[in-house]
Amino acid sequence: MKAIFTIALRELRGMFHSPLAWSLLAVLFAICAYMFNAGVLTYQIQMVEYQSYGMRGGLPLTERTIAPMLGNAAVLLLLLMPLLSMRLIAEEKRQGTWPALACSPLSPMTIILGKYTGLLLFLAIAIGLLAIPPLTLYSFANPDTGQFLAGLLGLFLTAAAFGAVGLAASSATENPNVAAVISFGVLLMLWILSWMGNASGGVVDKMLAYFSLLNHYQNFLSGIISSADLSYFLLLSAAGLLFARQRLMAERIQG
Amino acid sequence: MKTLGDESPRPPLFFQSLELFYGWGITIMNQTALAVEAVVKTYGNHHALNGVNFAVPAGVCMALLGHNGAGKTTLMKLLLGLTRPTSGQITVLGTNPALAGPEFRRQIGFLPENVIFHAELTGEETLKHYARLKGENPNRQNELLERVGLAHAARRRVKGYSKGMRQRLGLAQALLGQPRLLMLDEPTTGLDPMLRHEFYQVIQELRSAGVTILLSSHVLTELEARTDLAMILEHGRITAFGTLDELRREAALPVRLRIRASDPEQVMTALNGITARQTAPEELELTAAVEEKMTILRTLMASGIDVSDIEIQLPTLDHVYAHFGREKPAKEEK
Predict the structure, then answer these.
(1) Is A95 an 8 Å CB contact of chain B?
(2) What gap in Å lies between CA A247 and CA A249, rounded to an integer?
(3) Which of B262, B156, B210, B217 is closest to B31 using CA atoms?
């Protein structure tokens, strides 16, 4: 356990010592804050229009401002996470820092968990930053806190699954760029899996819908936390980590 | 149990190097640090190692020699448990390294060739980091940095280190946790002569403390006086293994004698039948088989010739290496 946190903290420190992590955070925050502001302004215009038609009540604030921002944040993370996760193992191998770690008395799983925990800590910081713009809403409105928190949890789980897939890709190659491309390709495929709609029909359609990242994430954005969605993200993350572990074990066998 | 002075028959060639221990009075039972038996390692159709057999007693410093691609790094990876042999058996410190747990790895220090550390950490932080991973006391780093001559740069980031400083930090990292076996792959690359000298002093101290050391280097001259055993690998096979004296004997390389005498002609006459070459007005150079060396010296002493100096040059590790390197294709032709 101690070793996992030692690796995680070094990983986190390494990320913040590289301009990549800072620029990722800056880009993510700037774009999300812009989208959030655009959402709030659009909401205000829509509310004026809505009320000008003499309609009662109001439009759902959280669903029209926070949920779209978090939805877009996930798309941005889909693009950016491969850039971050590609470093985890492939970059170490390319730079030559890997042998010292590989020869330490740690099991491949401890190394994997350490690196993944480091990535999760970075994601927690990133998602903490993304929570700032929606929090400003509380000063002049009453967003749905439950839906907001469910959305943040969903974003964290989605990004964590992205990270696990990225880590698996990073373990499969010594070239970080190839790792980024593989990870991006797999994530995009998982994201758009349900686009086939009902065209395939029957069981295949249900399977595609189940494996689609988007479907599970959308439930969180709607404020629904279901065990099916939670287990989907946990299973996807576990699959990524196990794949990475198997790769490292295979390296020890094949050399 | 075999101990000093044991009159048991000469051990087979495979274990001849254990004789070193007779002289040092160390019990040899259960003292084999590395045992490699019929190890083959293939990558596709390429045989990186092809039937390698050897055993190294504990507390010995062994030089691992060979051209690039001879199989040295593969052998080190196998001994570290970073890869498994295609066939054959490896025992390191009494354990199969490929199946060994953390306790085994704690007893091994490894310095990879061209070691690289995380650039954002200082030397001190780097050692603390690896000490934590090894489950060792992270506060020993100052002592280790002092030992490898890096105390002055302990708080400097590794990215500002020269190659030599990185190598020394690598050695400090390998020494974490007082390992019983140390594997050093090209450890002196990038070190200036003074630092090399200091490096070998550390190695000498470790050797005296009973640490088994496996050292791979291309700089043969610096290994010659500092290693107990040498192993030469060629195309994944061992072409020579033993102490330097054993290898010299096996190679039967000639000794070179440089004789300074007021009358070289007289010396040539006295050494009738041995080809000598006059290299200076009062200097002769000749090569002879090792066993002829004493006969030549006795002849010169008995002849009464005015000899002012005799310089005897034994075959160096360079010569031995060149010999066994050349021998391989000949064996293959046979």
Answers:
(1) yes
(2) 5
(3) B210
d(CA B109, CA B296): 48
- B 159-218 residues with CB below 8 A of A? 170, 173
Contact (CB<8Å) A252/B82: yes
Coarse DSSP helix, strand, coil percentages of chain A, rounded to the nearest 5 percent = 85, 0, 15
- Picking from A89, A85, A87, the residue whose alpha carbon sits closest to that of residue A112 is A89
pLDDT interval class at A105 (50, 70, 90): confident
Q: Give the closest residue to A96 by CA, choosing from B163, B328, B79, B321.
A: B163
B74 and chain A: CB distance < 8 Å anywhere? yes
- Secondary structure percentages of chain B, helix, strand, coil, to 5: 40, 25, 35
B103:A97 CB<8 A: no
To the question of pTM greater than 0.80 for the whole model, the response is no
Q: How far apart are CA B126 and CA B145, in angstroms?
A: 11
Q: What pLDDT is attached to residue B29?
A: 40
Q: What percent of chain B has pLDDT over 90?
A: 9
**Interface probe, candidates A103, A115, A251, A252, chain B, greatest B C-beta count within 10 A:** A103
> Could you give the ipTM of this predicted complex?
0.81
Band (pLDDT 50/70/90 cuts) for residue A240 is: very high
Chain B residues close to A6, C-beta within 8 Å = 129, 132-133
Residue A156, CB-side half-sphere exposure with 13 Å CA sphere: 21
Dihedral sign, CA of B148, B153, B158, B160?
negative
**Span A140-193, pLDDT tens digits:** 888 899 999 999 999 999 999 999 999 999 998 888 899 999 999 999 998 888
> Is B72 an interface residue toward A (CB < 8 Å)?
no
The residue of chain B with its CA nearest to that of A94 is B116
CA distance A209 to chain B (A): 41
